[in-house]
Amino acid sequence: MLQSTTAEIKPRSALRVNPAKTCQPIGALYAALGIHGCMPHSHGSQGCCAYHRSHLTRHYKEPVVATTSSFTEGASVFGGLANMTQALTNIFSIYNPDIVAVHTTCLSEVIGDDIPMMIKKSYDDGIIPSGKLVIHANTPSFVGSHMTGFSNMTKAMVTYLSDRNGSTKNQLNLIPGFIDPADMRELKRLAAMMNVNIVMFPDTSDVLDLPQTGIYKMYPKGGVSIPQLKSTGDSIATLALGHFASYAAATALNDKWEVTNAFLELPIGLGPTDRFINALRNYAGVDVPESIVQERGRLLDMISDMQQYFHGKRVAVAGDNDNVIALVQFLTELDMKPVYVITGSPGNHFETRVGEILKEQVPDAVIKQNTDLFALHQWMKNGPVDLIIGNTYCKYIARAENTPFVRFGFPILDRMTHRIFPTVGYMGAIRLMDKMFDAMMDHKDRECPEELFELVQ
Amino acid sequence: MSEQIKTEATSLPDPTQVREIMLEPYPAKTKRKRAKQVLVNDPETPPKIGANSRTVPGIITQRGCTYAGCRGVVMGPVYDLLQIVHGPVGCGFYAWLSRRNLARPDTGESNFLQYCMNTDMQEEQIVFGGEKKLKQAIQEAYDIFKPKAIAILSTCPVGLIGDDIHSVAREMKKKLGINIIGFSCEGYKGVSQSAGHHIANNEVFKHIIGQDDTADTAKYTINILGEYNIGGDAWEIDALLKKCGIHVTATLSGDVNYGQLARCHTAMLNTVMCHRSINYIAEMMEKKFGIPWIKINFLGAESTAKSLRKIAQYFGDPELQTRVEEVIATEMTALQPVRDEVAAKHRGKKVALFVGGSRAHHYQDLFEDIGMKVVSAGYEFAHRDDYEGRHVLPTIKIDADSRNIEELHVEADPERYTPRISAERRTELVKEGLSFSEYEGMMAQMKKDTLVIDDISHYEIEKLIEIYKPDLVCSGIKDKFVIEKMGVPCKQLHSYDYGGPYASFSGAANFYREVDRMLSTKIWKFVVPPWEKEPQLEANFVHNVRIKDTKKETKKAA
Ligand code: SF4
Ligand code: SF4
Asked: What one-character DSSP code corresponds to residue B59?
């Protein structure tokens, strides 16, 4: 397993080995699926779109539809206007979406296609039927990562669609960040328990976690609706979860309609969930119901019962910047020691924020943005850990180092419950604890000497 | 609708009408184009299909890009060739371990399949060029991994910003003293993965094949071309051939190493599994080295037997032929019970296959083994010759997209060209019925009035399922859950998602069982909940309420 990875670390400045990030459009495509009645469209050659759809499908085990401009060499040389026009004509007559969300690929970015001009021309020429919408986000992958793409498309929802009719509506905007449908569903559940009306965008629940009914619907019932998106300018405030995926859209809403912003982190673990609940309470002016207090209490009880098994455990964490920033807080709440914390995405806030979180508890932690799984593995060879947390690709490292492993983040290509059970909120935290505990205990039960194999834990 | 258009004779829908329904919503231009790719079959005189043409923008297609065909399909499986994808991070990332091409390197050999290496191109390189970063990446890869050889694979932006990967390859080859090969397989270069196969074939032929003249000592040596060891298929084939006493010098490119590729020109025969992805190498090796090629197919029991017989016939050794017959007899006997059992349960059930450049054809043989009926099939990225047969090759017009891909001019190698069999022997074999350099294509095997659909679109798949109500569809990961949401099981036939091997006799048994599992699963029966099947038991409910109410009333009255 990964036999060519050795403990000897040689400098690298050009070669990326086993990335811990991927490219912008997949994030944009995922976000676009969180609009009801939307067809995501990839403006470039068709390979990118095929890859993005395949990977999303493997993670969600659901249909992921998207169209492409299918560039060939000609379009690459002369520009993609003809392809875009033809694509929009076909999309509206064959698939009849309410809205098309266009994102670019490296190719259309390099040739410098002017998407707003193309969209305007398509409206002018009557290619976009009346009442239908087309929005876009630029998503060059030589900048940022899939997190950036998600952020850009979410922001496009604001710049193109948010509106204001003057009277403030009794609702909060919630920008959930790059999390799974199950997580989005959980955020909605918590808000409903608090009696807070929210407009969540994007919202992929009921789009990418569909029941089996024997009927296929290209546009399932989920997704934020266009009227809801339009109403975001009238909301009391916007709660944006995650610096990298959500702040840009919130800032745009504030710039456009002066909607108050609350910048939060993803509600993973106790503290971040407390802050989320508290923000809902403060901005909507509601009380925290007993049912939520009890959920919280159950998590606390779980931690106090089982804390001894987590205390001091060395953890390697790899994943998306926003998600890792929140997760690391939970690990410290469990008194664990995240000794290596990495993300593949660039962005200085990651190192600063994780540094702040770990300053007291793990002052010597190695924290790195814009790095890769190969680097992480090499560090582990020099200083082993008790647990590794990351996406499916980390399973190779886990096997090579015989280290307990918990799957977390995107993508998870080889397990199932991430599609149904959340990791956010108090219940999500319990689930994460459960997974960590199982992983470490199964490992101990498998590897420990027979005389230490115990019935009760 | 589907009921109305069934013809009496076949109990299958009238394909001409289905075709019209499928094309109906398309705008004029799209309709004209798709009309050439959705055809009613006639095996006697296959109609001309508009294959290998551009995908219409805006259509939800199965197709991928040239890079995917080169890096993902052909080069990806070569496990000890260190491959650096030059471009932004995504293209490299998605092709990393996602195709299930398995390998079992010997101890001490490098295995780079678990690694994804790329130049993670940034804006700076887009603006100022990426050659410097590429050279540095090659140097670092060399320093860290000490590979035998390095491949550089370009993605879309590279061609546009004008990086010359071939000159970088030459320069670094000189500097490091190992073979370094550039593949200009930018995604936009062709209309599908197919162009990437061709590019990979060209570079492998130019830069790897023939680098080492050490021949295997075995008596009968062959190469298997176009077999990628998905789910372990190549291993089954290898094991089967070994039983017969036939040695595989190299499989291109399943579980293969650089060294095997370098000396595969020493084999006595090339056998071609996937015609689409590798026929170029077969042709070029014949011209340069004198190795003839025959088409074989190890998917399906009958076709596996047929393929073994063809190989034995080629070598013409009675002893070998006897051994092959013995192996076939033993394997068939072992296979028969499961084949009979599955056939008894599923004979006559309907299947449709839309996949790849050869599998939509080859897998029909497995279904034929168990008596299932193919109602429609099509490739994702094949050419006319894969549908209509190689005899149409001279009539295929070279369009702008195909012209993009270099056609290598190959001549006989002055020293190493040795016809593996004499001209007389070849004529004799042809007379006996063994055809060389020949592939008859998918349409000749499919029944009359079945529907052949090239590069099927999402809409066409939906209609097909609605109208034909197939029992099983074979397709790719992107369609799989659409099909299953419609209540029809879907077998993913690119990487299988899980399971395999399905090749050879042992693999066929796996496949029959897999089909049986999919067709016998009870899950689809539970889709409609009981409360939607039975009327509400209103009487009871009302009755109970009434009794309660009456009680209340009685109480009150009292
Ligand atoms: S070209 Fe860019 S957008 Fe397309 S897959 Fe590669 S990195 Fe992603
Ligand atoms: S950028 Fe080009 S090479 Fe990369 S996936 Fe997209 S189409 Fe293929």
From this structure: S
Looking at the predicted complex, does its ipTM rise above 0.90? Answer: yes
The CATH class of A24-161 is alpha beta
> 3-state DSSP call for residue A43?
strand
pLDDT single digits (tens) B140-192: 999 999 999 999 999 999 999 999 999 999 999 999 999 999 999 999 999 99
pTM: 0.96
pLDDT band with cut points at 50, 70 and 90 for residue B537: low
Q: Give chain A positions within 8 Å (CB) of B162.
A: none
- Cα distance between residue B94 and residue B72, in whole Å: 9
Residues forming beta bridges with residue B373, ordered by sequence position = B350
Give the torsion through C-alpha atoms of B321, B322, B324, B330, to 10 deg: 160
Residue B338 near chain A (CB below 8 Å): no
Superfamily of domain A172-288: Nitrogenase molybdenum iron protein domain (3.40.50.1980)
Do A48 and B187 make contact, defined as CB atoms within 8 angstroms?
Answer: yes
One DSSP character per residue, B201-256 reads HHHHHHHTTTS--PPP-SSSEEEEEEE--BTTHHHHHHHHHHHHT-EEEEEEETTB
Q: Would you call B57 and A25 a contact, using CB atoms and an 8 Å cutoff?
A: no
| Pick among 2.60.120.10, 3.40.50.1980, 3.40.50.620, 3.40.1110.10: CATH of A292-452 | 3.40.50.1980
Residues of A in contact with B190 (CB under 8 A): 72
Please write the tens of the pLDDT for every residue from B329-366: 999 999 999 999 999 999 999 999 999 999 999 999 99
User: Hey, where are the domains in chain A?
Assistant: 24-161, 172-288, 292-452
If you write DSSP's letter for every residue of A170-237 in order, what string do you get?
S-EEEE--S--HHHHHHHHHHHHHTT--EEESS--TTTSSPPP-S---SS-S-SB-HHHHHGGGGSSE
